[in-house]
Write a structure and sequence with these properties.
Elements: H1 2-9, H2 48-63, H3 87-91, E1 108-109, E2 131-132, E3 136-140, H4 147-160, E4 165-169, H5 185-197, H6 201-207, E5 212-216, H7 225-239, E6 243-247, H8 259-273, E7 276-281, H9 292-298, E8 301-309, H10 313-318, E9 326-335, E10 345-349, E11 356-358
Parallel strand pairs: 3-7, 3-8, 4-5, 4-6, 6-7
Antiparallel strand pairs: 1-2, 8-9, 9-10, 10-11
Helix pairs in contact: 4-5, 8-9
Region (Disordered): 1-29
Organism: Enhygromyxa salina
Domain KaiC-like: 116-312
Amino acid sequence: MANDDQNQQQPQQPGMPGMPGMPGMMPGQGMPGQGMPGMNPMMGGMNPMMMQMMQMMGQMAGGMGMAPQFDASAAPFQGELSKDEDSGLDADIIRPATFDDLIRKQEPLPTGTVLDHLCLTEDGKHSLGGLPKGCTMALVGPPGKGKTRTTLGTLARVAQSGTKVAFVVAEEGFHDKAGSGRDDLGSRMTKIGMSATGLSEAEFRKQVLENMWVIESQYHRGQTWDDFIAKYRYLVEKAGIGFVVIDSLNMLDPSKNKTADHLSTLKTYNHEQGVTCLCVGQIKDTGAPVGGEAMQHTADAVFLIEEMGLSSKEIASEWGGKYRERIDIIRAVKCVSSPTFPHPIRIEQKPGTGELLVSALQPADKAVLPLA
């Protein structure tokens, strides 16, 4: 037919070959009625898959009534401000200008060990003379260096002074109920305490043990962090505990993944209750404390026991040792409430108790400062 012949001879419009449409249009962009067979004319020849995607997007945005997404952290800022009758909000807001005792002086908790020399008075001219009272601290170091023995002697002296103390045991059993013949931790604590205080067994029982409580919190018995906190809070608030030793903080979390978080929780509670707390900590093979920088950042004070190599004859002469010998030192990594002694302190263990003392070989130009 004539019309058919004319259509066949009509030149193609610019676009895809063999596809009718407007100049420059891609496939599926033709005018209504010029799409592919079976295509909705109202969609202008749109690709069926694209059409389905647009329909789904429309349903998600409005057809199904879904709310727009937003950052969950912005949720507390939505809605109306709480009314003034909510006394809890006002109670949590602090106005320092109302304090009568705004400026405080850091007080010491004497230990009778090298720990008395690691922190200084405000003017930096004297050793503080004890652990910074009211702080939650970490004493970290390799095994066998005298950490536990130092804390046991400290517990005895503090309890003898009349302060009620608690000993949290997480690494071993405290009392050998089976009678296996082992010199258990309770026995070792008594012997070290008697030697540290100079008391007889009867006097030690009356003057020291009457002010002491022990919490066993071993994870192999199914004890969790929450179980420990429940017992800890009960004891602190019921007995009025003023000083606590935890041996060791790392073993309260055998995964070693939440040491810093647990220490932060414990520190906040201790601050509220006025508790001085010394946590014994472990180190990794690298020499860094378990819990890493996060743990060191969290603690009020960190005391680190290390081995120092005397790598030259000059250094060996300065520290009273032999060339290439390794000596034990302790240093204050930080303390938020007082200045710290700026040099390492060479340590030695006291005969009989194993407590850590300042070595007589400490260099003269790095001598510890006199007690306040």
